[in-house]
Amino acid sequence: METYQLTRSKRKSLSIAIGRDGTVQVKAPNWLPKYKIDQFIQQKAGWIEEKRLELSKQERPGHTFQEGDEFLFLGEPFRLAFCAKAQGQEGSQGIALDQKKKILTMETGMGIGDVKAANVRKKLEQWYLSQAKQIFPERASQYFPLAAKLAGDTGREIAPINRISIRNQKTRWGSCSSKGNLNFNWRLLMAPEKVLDYVVVHELCHLAYLDHSKEFWQMVTAILPDCRERREWLKTNGMYLDWEQEPQ
């Protein structure tokens, strides 16, 4: 029997998706018996293998995590540059972003020739996380008033934002709990800003609708009329926002 990750909610139907790491993700109604879900997975065995094969054939961009390597930030490529010690440089985690020159300058604190790829990767992840902790709350604050107004216009209550957390997830871009807790994947900072905004709006609308009902999608579309285009970009290109295995 194929193992799978199960998420239950007030949704009306059963759905299945294959994560970027090959995991089977199932979303099911609260009322649906477990054996029915198992039967559904067995029936979809051929489809699961087909999708996994498609994912295995898709190539991810390779990274050396060395000087000259390129990394995406809000959809734009930035070239990585090393410096032993920054002079008057501003930036968190010893990294500064130069929008004009499209350069990410990293302070190594050692001889540039001694920089290990694994250390560079770790430092970059810390930098992306620090940026995400600023950007996601800013974007959520921008869109929340509109989401609240739309909910109010339809007589729907919207939960206030309780907490925003940044995660290092492999299979989810964002999530929302009934307590008003929003979670976002820092890797979205590599996507275009309009795609990042789509995920933010998507989760904000879950504060009013904890399902993917018609009313939920109407609310998302009212805020972002081109939400389908943004969603399709993420479905098609999301795997390219992931890095390969840990370098040595």
Provide the descriptors you would attach to this structure in a database record.
6 helices, 248 residues, 4-stranded mixed β-sheet, alpha/beta
In short:
With 248 residues, the chain is of the alpha/beta class. 38% of the residues lie in helices and 20% in strands.
Description:
The protein has 248 residues and is an alpha/beta fold. 38% of the residues lie in helices and 20% in strands. The chain contains six helices and ten strands; from the N terminus they run βββααββββαβββααα. It has helices spanning 34-43, 45-57, 117-153, 193-205, 214-223, 227-237; strands at residues 5-9, 15-18, 24-29, 70-73, 76-83, 95-98, 103-107, 163-167, 174-176, 181-185. Strands 4-5-7-6 form a four-stranded mixed sheet, covered by helices on one side. Strand 2 and strand 3 form a beta hairpin. The radius of gyration is 20 Å and the shape is globular.
Give, in order, the helices and strands.
EEEHHEEEEHEEEHHH
Total number of strands: 10
Q: What is the oligomeric state here?
A: single chain
- The dominant shape is globular
Strand content: 15-25%
| Distance from first to last alpha carbon | 36 Å
Rg (C-alpha, Å): 20 Å
Please state the average pLDDT score: 87
Identify low-pLDDT runs. none
Classify the secondary structure makeup into a structural class. alpha/beta
